[in-house]
Design a protein that fits this description.
alpha+beta; 3-stranded antiparallel beta sheet; 4-stranded antiparallel beta sheet; 7 strands; single chain
Length: 163
């Protein structure tokens, strides 16, 4: 009997074990993801905050020059980035998720040439907070449809997704 099932993700592999799900990073993209985000989402938030600071500077300059079209554009971009910053705190990049803490897994099918297939895992972390872990599958240049079907089959066979 097979105790571990594996499928490829955008940055490495997802290992489905009897008691947990483990994500490993592999290759150039996995190493880059490890460098940029590590196991925390905070590095991405810092980049967004730096962009908000720069856009605020531009907004003030454009307001002083009475260029209200650019003030509106800057304000809109600042609002969008602030929305993404607030939303980022509900996500996690944890490499291990206990199966007992999983509340739900949602599969999102790819839009060809626009988006990747992905899983959104809703789980409770060790602090009791509900978090989401996004698992992106490989893109359209790497036989993505068959990999997505294989991953979905594994998730269904492990009773993690009930359609």
């Amino acid at each position: 009997m097979e105790t571990e099932k594996i499928f490829k993700t955008k940055t490495g592999y997802c290992h489905i074990l009897p008691d947990k799900i483990v994500f490993t990073r592999d290759g150039v993209i996995g190493n880059l993801a490890s460098t940029v985000s590590g196991n925390h989402i905070y590095q991405s938030v810092i980049i967004y905050l730096a962009a908000v600071g720069f856009l605020t500077y531009l907004l003030i300059n454009n307001y002083a020059e009475k260029n209200y079209v650019l003030v509106g554009l800057d304000a809109g971009l600042i609002a969008l980035l602030l929305y993404y910053i607030v939303r980022a705190f509900s996500y996690s990049v944890t490499p291990v998720i206990e199966r007992s803490s999983i509340q739900q897994i949602v599969y999102k099918k790819a839009v060809p040439m626009l988006t990747r297939s992905s899983f959104e895992i809703h789980f409770t972390n060790e602090k009791g907070r509900t978090k989401k872990r996004l698992v992106f599958l490989p893109g359209s240049l790497t036989n993505s449809e068959s990999i997505a079907n294989e991953a979905l089959t594994i998730m269904r066979s492990e009773h993690l997704i009930n359609d």
